[in-house]
Amino acid sequence: MNVYERSLPEVLLAHAEENPDRPFLEDVEGYSASYGQVLENSLRWADAWRRCEIGHGDRVAVFVPPSPQYIECWIGLTWLGAIEVGINPDYRGDMLASVLSDCGAKAVLVHVDYLDRLSEVLDRVPSLETIVVSGGPMSETVLPCEQISFDAFWDRAEVMSPPALPNPWDIATICYTSGTTGPSKGVRLPWGQVQHLASVNFEGLLTGEDAFYLPLPLFHIGGKVFPLLMAERGGRLVVRERFSATAFWSDIRKTRSTFTVLVGTMAGLLLKQPELPEDSDNPLWLLWAVPVPDRIEEFQKRFGIPRVMTSYTQTEMCAALRNQHVNESNRTSAGQIVPGVELAIVDEHDLPVPDGEIGQLLIRTREPWRLNAGYHGRPDATAEAWQNGWFHTGDAFRRDSDGWYYFIDRMKDCVRRGGENISSLEVERIVDQHPEVDTAACIGVKSDLGDEDVKICVQLTAGSTLSERELLEWLVAHMPRFMVPRYIEIVAEVPKTPNQRVQKAEFRKTPVNDRTWDRQAHDVDVPRH
């Protein structure tokens, strides 16, 4: 088997035997664990979960902030053949209940800061049997399932012997999509897909001397790819709980990181920071930017970054397109096709379109485990995405005569904000739950950072005097922070089609006008918790 076609447990086991003291997982606070220590910790995690009667095929939800210990927990579950399900720490209410019940979680690891939110939805998660509480005391409220402190969970566990290694077709994780076309769906990712993403995107790049700085959530697919990527190279992975533009470069210098990823508005936020004489004095030599920012040349010059790469993929896909050396001539392209995949750009009948014309991008691979194994518990959604032997990405592309692919837009409505794909339907569903809201329409408004801000156009119930600020305060308590709209416009009517679908075309013509309420202009901040 190729060295880059192994699962994370297999790569970890090999490094722990060959060079156990080599550093592997770190955080920005100074924590560091070697390959040998991570192996030992992961096997102890495995035994701890085994004592909670977790076994092959069981789903365990992980509802904690990003940390090296999160990754060790994931590996531990993998040793048992159990499946980790990462939960967005911003989730609450209906969205939290939906994901937990959809995946059929048997157990959940929850940080004490999120315990109240979990407790509020337990009556809607009948599959849940065990709650492990980390970071503080357990709930004093009687819960409908077993509750155990992390100390008790950990202290009773031993370091077990390594079980059988996973196969490429075994499920590595269930990642929930951002829900760009409706409610979030749980994508079943085989190890072969994670392996392909880690190896092919970065083929010929990085060595054991490199360190990757990870400012992204671990519940995203990147949180699964980058630990394997750096383990393959024998390098270090540095975890930060949440992206910070003010701390970014000090983190890079302190941790001696040589490679990182920036998504969405991150590059724009870094450029907005005050210029300093030491901006270009850092060890970073490679940046993975998704997408490539408009001001990438300015970014590279100011911060002294020799090389920028980009790629195109989805939670459901292996690597599809890559551009390992972005320059002026190709900076607007998502890249060229990678080895081992087949792509097609088609019309609404799945017929290929000529180069230069726009159509939907489709993908397939020779080995079935290079792509998703379907949506968990959603055969309808799986069948819709997988048609005629191809996975339908839902994204519009065009290809030029030299084989460069260009992303045009998503085929269906979504808002891209801060690296998150926000489903307009999810936003509308939550807004519509307000007792004084008749109908809501959500659109994206282009921001000065290069992505989009969320705007809602709201038709109130008859006689309502609800203000924009009052509605915003209600939304803050009922939706994740990244979904909270910047703009609110109260309208006389939200038009609908005959089949009751909201029509948004008119709202997009004048997205910000004299009737639009802007929370930033009113200095209204949104708390993180």
UniProtKB/TrEMBL annotation:
- This chain belongs to the protein called ATP-dependent acyl-CoA ligase
Tell me the InterPro entries matching this sequence.
AMP-bd_C (IPR025110), AMP-bd_C_sf (IPR045851), AMP-binding_CS (IPR020845), AMP-dep_synth/lig_dom (IPR000873), ANL_N_sf (IPR042099), ATP-dep_AMP-bd_enzyme (IPR050237)
SUPFAM superfamilies noted in UniProt: Acetyl-CoA synthetase-like (SSF56801)
Residue ranges occupied by any AMP-binding enzyme C-terminal domain in the UniProt entry: 426-499
Source species taxonomy: Bacteria, Bacillati, Actinomycetota, Actinomycetes, Propionibacteriales
Which GO MF term does the entry hold, naming one?
acid-thiol ligase activity
Alphabetically sorted, this entry's keywords are: Ligase
Q: Which organism is it from?
A: Nocardioides marmoriginsengisoli
Task: Look up keyword Ligase and say if it applies.
Answer: yes
